[in-house]
Amino acid sequence: MRIEAASVLHSHAYPAYFQQCRADGCEYYSHSQATPAVFYQQVLDHAAGHHLPPGYVPTQTWFALDEGGDILGAIRLRLGSTPFILDQCGHIGYEVHPAARGLGVAGRLLAHVQQHGAPQQDGGWLIICTDDNSASQRVISRAGGVLLTATAQGPGEAWLRYYHLPSRRY
Q1: Which helix (H) or strand (E) holds 150?
Q2: CA-CA 20 to 30 A from 91: which of 35, 79, 107, 130?
Q3: For the structural domain made of 2-164, what CATH number should be given?
């Protein structure tokens, strides 16, 4: 497995990844009505700081790729803080292709961001996951994330907010 910053080189692999993640209900993809090509152009634009919606900041995206160049997972690092980021999505967001879950992809992606990502002004990042996502909770905790709060979002649902420091140990 290798990890690379999202670029035009991955545009051939992105549509299948996008469609599978959307079909699996990944929130990042499920709310968009865009085609995979349009959505991917937005990913590239947002990395460059172009065409950012209100409340968004430039966002670097990396992919975990298999030997054939297929995307196994993605991680996004939002480069700044806004109320939307602090309350809704955190500085780091990631997902793993359903067929690649349990293979350590999320942990490798998070370790990559720890080593290569630019920290926020206070030195760390906020990561948010739902209380029913035990796999993500384990990944964040193993990488040194510290649980800050659990916030109810509705009946039977809560968001867990973790503070996460970069690490240069990898």
Answers
A1: strand 146-154
A2: 35
A3: 3.40.630.30
